[in-house]
Amino acid sequence: MNARQRAMFVNTITLLCLLAEVVLSAEPLTLTVNLRGFRSDKGAVEVALFDQAPAFPKDPEKAVARQRVSIVGGSATVAFRNLGPGTYAVSAYHDVNGNGRMDTNFIGIPKEPTGASNDAKGRMGPPSFKDAQFTVKAEMSITVTMQ
Fold first, then answer.
1. What's the pTM value of the predicted model, to 2 decimals?
2. How is domain 29-145 classified at the CATH fold level?
């Protein structure tokens, strides 16, 4: 093998490696969210996945994905599939009375249990996206404790 053939071989191998990395990084990912700390199994839990700060957590209509699941034995699990790598935040509320919305008092404080990724808590309001954010690079699982 002469120098020119060797260079072409090395370039071909390098290109194949780069192509393989692009293909593998494009695989859809699954994020599993384990929710715990429910005081009762009554109602359901609404879980929203956000990829942008402006909507988090107050505008679930702008979430990347949402799921509503039953609570069993004081816990629940949600799997968000087909995600791309990126920065996300999760918010959840326990819809105890099953009315499909988070109940609040007259000044907007939730009457029903809530939770966020990183167990982020707000100060004089909901938690910030920055406090709740995490990075998905591969299949992963997180735990959210309801407050």
1. 0.81
2. Immunoglobulin-like (2.60.40)
pLDDT for 27 equals 85
Q: Does the structure show a pLDDT above 80 at 22?
A: no
Q: Which residues of 1-23 are buried (b: 16+ CB within 10 A; e: fewer)?
A: eeeeeeeeeeeeeeeeeeeeeee
Distance CA(16)–CA(28), nearest Å, equals 21
Contact (Cβ atoms closer than 8 angstroms) between residue 56 and residue 83: no
Q: Strands, E, within the chain: which ranges? A: 29-36, 44-50, 65-70, 75-83, 86-95, 114-116, 134-136, 140-145
What sections of the chain are H helices per DSSP?
3-25, 129-132
The residue-averaged pLDDT of 77-87 equals 98
Place of tokens 């629940």: 76
- Is 66's pLDDT higher than 90? yes
* Domain definitions of the chain by residue range: 29-145
Strand 114-116, strand 44-50: pairing = unpaired
DSSP β-ladder status, 134-136 and 86-95: antiparallel
Please give the backbone phi and psi of residue 53, each rounded to the nearest 5 degrees, phi first: -70, -40
On whether the CB atoms of residues 137 and 24 are closer than 8 A, the answer is no
